[in-house]
Amino acid sequence: MGKYQLIYFNVKGRGEAIRLLFKDNGIAYEEINCGENWLKEWKPQMQFGQVPALKDNDFLLVQTNAILRHLGRKHGLYGNNEQEASLIDMINDGIEDLRVKYLTLIYKNYENGKDIYIAELPAQLQPFEKLLSENGAEKTGCCVGNKRSFADYNLFDLLDINQVLAPKCLDDFPTLTAYYQLQLARPGIADHRESESFKQMNINGNGKQ
Ligand code: 0HH
């Protein structure tokens, strides 16, 4: 198997959950910054004109969640059975819904929308608290079953960026707080967050966070 290539801009953004998955599982990959010459060189190559993109040998795959699922299938990060895989999909779709709300705030309505976004955040996080506490995720660090999945990286990143925006947002959610701390304590994740590239990279392309 050749080395994967992750093609993305020099921001955390939608690339971060993929990076976390690679780092935490010791999967070698190469980062390609498509920011230079984006419009002429890179955008026309992408099936939907957007990144992140994953190169897996000759296979070029776009759409963040398709990439996460592809890596989940290939690296045993997609549950123990079909029902767990479906629950992982369900949670990952919930993550996507909140990520889109977050991105809409960041890129389209930051100044006017921030207070209302923060006020509504507890109601957005409550379903995750419930699902994870039903699964004992405060002990296992797994949002589904007893096996890590790609959704754990996506959820960790979602909780992380929301805490940058609203530092107290997990305070009323004991399971999410414990789950988040378990992810932070994983050596692969901790090492990644200690790296210069992580520390220097903005979360979003417009510098808002
Ligand atoms: N549904 C797609 C997915 O999940 C959405 C992808 C998407 O919105 O993969 N991609 C954006 C980049 S993410 C894109 O390709 C936002 C980060 C923007 C960073 C900007 C530059 C930073 C420079 C340091 N956008 C480009 C485009 O649409 O032409």
Description:
Residues 81-203 form the GST C-terminal domain. Keywords: Transferase. Homodimer. One of its GO terms (cellular component) is cytosol. Pfam families: GST_C_3, GST_N. With 209 residues, this protein is an alpha+beta fold. 58% of the residues lie in helices and 9% in strands. It contains ten helices and four strands; from the N terminus they run E-H-E-H-E-E-H-H-H-H-H-H-H-H. The chain has helices spanning 16-24, 38-42, 64-74, 82-108, 110-134, 137-140, 150-165, 174-184, 187-194, 196-200, and strands spanning 4-8, 29-33, 53-56, 59-62. Strands 2-1-3-4 form a four-stranded mixed β-sheet, with helices on one face. Strand 1 (4-8), helix 1 and strand 2 (29-33) form a beta-alpha-beta unit. Helix 4 runs parallel beside helix 7 (150-165) and helix 7 (150-165) packs across helix 8 (174-184). The chain is globular. The mean pLDDT is 98. The structure holds L-gamma-glutamyl-S-nonyl-L-cysteinylglycine.
